[in-house]
UniProtKB/TrEMBL annotation:
Taxonomy of the source species: Bacteria, Bacillati, Bacillota, Clostridia, Peptostreptococcales
Transmembrane segments: none
Keyword Isomerase found: yes
Single GO MF descriptor: peptidyl-prolyl cis-trans isomerase activity
Protein name: Peptidylprolyl isomerase
Superkingdom of origin: Bacteria
Domain PpiC as annotated: residue spans: 113-203
Entries under PANTHER family matching the protein: PEPTIDYL-PROLYL CIS-TRANS ISOMERASE HP_0175-RELATED (PTHR47245:SF2), PEPTIDYLPROLYL ISOMERASE (PTHR47245)
UniProtKB keywords: Isomerase, Rotamase
KW S-adenosyl-L-methionine (keyword) present: no
Length: 251
């Protein structure tokens, strides 16, 4: 990004990069509000105002104020503590061999369930379900149109779309029908405790063993967290032994 000076306060320059850094420091909702031309103008004004406060603070020698010095000491101590912890955690390394070994030893944890993506139309009577099915099969109406106009399920607002789900999530009669259909099939009526369903299967994915590449990132995060905890705990024990004579816990 090319650096552009947006404002100058004395010798201090505020640039477009300062604005971008300010946006990054905000939470996503605030960043979205300020990431407009008007929002960036407000951020620039705020940065200018902060610099004005800084100039006055320097003029009044607030940096020599005892309360300020105490606050800076506290901040420095906290930053040094966190820096020391981060340095210990950053020393932890993870190899591809460790990831592969964990995968081989825990393959049963990485089995993908069989899933399906489906739409449905839910009505109260078998007669209406059959009537709609005939109209869909004869192309008088699309499945999605029928769902919007006749389904009693809230999914009607999404053309009857139920999204993707694994075995075991739906009621047995509905699930049995879905997982015995092929992609693109429209079948029904299927009776459940909720009424009569017409079902359209959008996609099917067979379950099975996940390959290492599919779960490598997940394993790496888990192992790194575990190893960092172990290193952190070990370091704590070392520090307690090293500074044992300085630690006094009051009852």
């Amino acid at each position: 990004m090319e650096r552009t000076v947006l404002a100058t306060i004395g010798e201090k320059e505020i640039t477009n990069i300062d604005i971008e850094n300010a946006l990054k420091s905000l939470d996503p909702y605030q960043a979205m509000q300020f990431n407009t031309e008007e929002g960036k103008k407000r951020l620039l004004e705020d940065l200018v105002n902060q610099e004005l406060f800084y100039l006055e603070a320097k003029d009044e020698n607030l940096h020599n104020d005892e309360n300020f010095k105490a606050e800076m000491k506290r901040i420095e101590e906290n930053m040094l503590k966190q820096y020391s912890i981060n340095k210990v955690l950053a020393s932890v390394k993870l190899t591809d061999e460790e990831i592969a070994n964990f995968y081989e030893a825990n393959k049963t944890k990485f089995v993908k369930p069989e899933t399906a993506s489906a739409k449905h139309i839910l009505v109260d009577t078998e007669e209406l379900a059959n009537d709609l099915l005939n109209k869909i099969n004869s192309n008088e109406i699309s499945f999605e149109e029928a769902a919007r106009e006749h389904s009693s399920c809230p999914s009607k607002d999404a053309d009857g779309d139920l999204g993707t789900f694994p075995r075991g999530q739906m009621v047995p009669e509905f699930e049995e029908a879905v997982f015995n259909m092929n992609r693109g099939d429209v079948q029904g009526p299927v009776k459940t405790q909720f009424g009569y369903h017409l079902i359209k299967v959008e996609d099917r994915h067979e379950g099975g063993q996940s390959e290492l590449d599919e779960v490598k990132e997940e394993i790496a995060k888990s192992l790194m967290y575990q190893k960092q905890n172990e290193v952190y705990s070990s370091k704590i024990n070392d520090l307690k032994a090293k500074y044992n004579n300085l630690v006094k816990l009051n009852d």
